[in-house]
Design brief:
The complex is a heterodimer of chains A (279) and B (397).
Chain A (H helix, E strand, L loop, with lengths): L1 H27 L14 H8 L3 H31 L3 H16 L2 H19 L7 H26 L2 H9 L4 H29 L3 H6 L7 H6 L8 H47 L1
Helix pairs in contact in A: 1-11, 2-11, 3-6, 3-8, 4-6, 6-8, 7-8, 8-11
Chain B lengths: L1 H20 L6 E7 L13 H9 L2 E7 L2 H10 L6 E2 L3 H9 L33 E14 L23 E4 L2 H12 L8 H14 L3 E5 L3 H7 L4 E5 H10 L3 E4 L5 E9 L7 H12 L1 H11 L14 H4 L8 H4 L2 E2 L6 H16 L2 H41 L2
Parallel strand pairs in B: 1-2, 1-3, 5-6, 9-10
Antiparallel strand pairs in B: 4-7, 4-8, 4-9
Helix pairs in contact in B: 5-6, 6-13
Classes of the chains: A mainly alpha (279), B alpha/beta (397).
Amino acid sequence: MKTFNKVFTVVVLLFLYVPMIVLGAASLNAGTDPAVWKGLTLFNYGELFRDGVLLPLLLNSVIVAVISSMLATILGTMASLGIHAMGPRMKRTVMGVTNIPLTNPEIVTGVSMALLFAFIGTLLKISNVLGFVTLLIAHITFNLPYVILSVTPKLSQMDPDLREAALDLGCTSGQAFFKVVIHEIMPGIISGALMSFTMSLDDFVISYFVYGPNFVTLPVEIYNYTKKPLQPKIYALFTLMFLVILLMMVLMNLLEARDDRRQSLARRALAGRRERAAE
Amino acid sequence: MKKIFAALCCLGLSAGLLPFSALAAQPTINVYNWGQYISDGSDGCIDVNAEFTARTGIKVNYMTYDSNESLYTKLKTGGSTYDIIIPSDYMIARLISEGMLEKLDFDKIPNYKYVDDAYKNTAYDPDNAYSVPYTWGTVGVIYNSRYVDEADIGSWDLLWNSKYSGKILMFDNPRDSFAIAEEYLGLGVNTENTDDLRAAAYKLIEQKPLVQSYVMDQIYDKMERGEAWIAPYYAGDYLQMAEVNPDLKFYLPSEGFNLFIDAVCIPKGCQNKEAAEAYINFLCDPEISGQNLDYLGYSTPISEAKQYMSPETAESEIAYPSKEVLARGASYINLSSATSQEMDSLWLQVKTQGGVDNYAIWCMAVLAAGMAVYFLVRGVKRKRRIANRCQKWKDGT
């Protein structure tokens, strides 16, 4: 059974990562055909960085991802605080409502958002309503649940006495939040922000419906590349994007591990102090 | 932690300011075109949009779509306006009939005089009021001369030749596939007769066992590598494939073939018609058209432009067939929505007819159902066992 487990794990990992490995190999291939290996080269990466079309689009994607994940993190954290303060039944209902957008098919979200924006556009008599702002709003919308999902558990793990102690020692409730609570839930906030950054960077379906002529993101543009075969520099671009996201995920896990370790140390120290006090 | 957060904030803010700094009072037009359908300055070719901005001071917001149908949806949904679109012939007819295009002011487009007469007064825009041709091309058969017998070529018949079973590719869209079957049967590409459509669908079903796969741009890889030997596709794309694999040859079938024209139009709701007309005029400049289409590989409707192209492209029999050959070509016109729906549902029948796909799906479904039943039964058994044990424990044994 043990060997079977090992083999199965390897098979699953292969299943997950072989496409990425093939992509990476294709980006390092000297020929244009991904099925024929013609030698190792970094030529495609050079081409990519000389490219005047893809890089500005990548910059657009990154801009949307950064701003939308930041705003979603702020809004999501505020929402989590509110949800945390609710009674258990209300809490369950609200969590259910915020989780629906996660399971809702992206295409439904995309189409309904496009309709909403077009409707608002006609109401306000703006003919070109689709653009950077609508894209940003859509991205914030689908990022919010991820932030709420990662911050709320941190709030429930937090020792409620900490905030009360801060209030007893003279903090206003705002100070108590910024000096005490935010430090306790920071790992959740960061992992929520990273998660929404990655979701927003590679989103295609929703962006496709809400983008406008003056602001196009990378995945949307690549989808329309049907008139000519894909150039190998696009493989290089995807490989780099994959590596960046991988790096962010590793970072996220490291941060979480560090946080766990610190908490267990703190708990042990506290227990030690209590024992000494008891003596 | 605080520092990291602050750093992230700063980064976000500075990145956020970037797109706004680019906003100036400069006049701007929104151009909506097929993906990769303009020379963008790669491989040392001309950058058409940058050149236009340099000459006129008008900024170009460039956006792309992947098919005529997605262009149509985007226009219908609303929420954004475009000044320039470049749809194909039948879509232009549809847009005209639905009143979605602006009439052009040809006084503002003096370069229209360079466009050859052959591309004026077309079926889709009989009065030349709404569109100016951008490119044109033909759909023919590409074959690998190393494997395909020269005696078999010349007709659409090659796509139904069982000798090459499993080596044939076919279009993955209803309009082009039906057109081939209709040409082969001599029905004409614009037939709206239900029986004709049925007959074409049967012909396609008959062909299905011979077809390796239904593809669009994967045709490049498969044909260049010799994985498939026969495929119908656009002449402009063939020229690019032949550069990679010189064994590939092309012919226009004797029964007739599709001749398509993609033309520049101004949709209703355009914000800056004068600038849009300046852009159309710029595209018709023989020098620009020549350099642009030299990069694209499609044919130019402007004979004057050929002197600015590489001689191989300009003199190619495939890009510019003789008048006698072109007379066999037929362009698509807009089908009524009832016919399009009929065609779509027949196409679905063709695609789902028999074949491995269905079989595999059934296997998966049975497997999944089996697993579900297994886990259900196991779960029930386990619950019963636990209940038994509890009962025994309560009884005190």
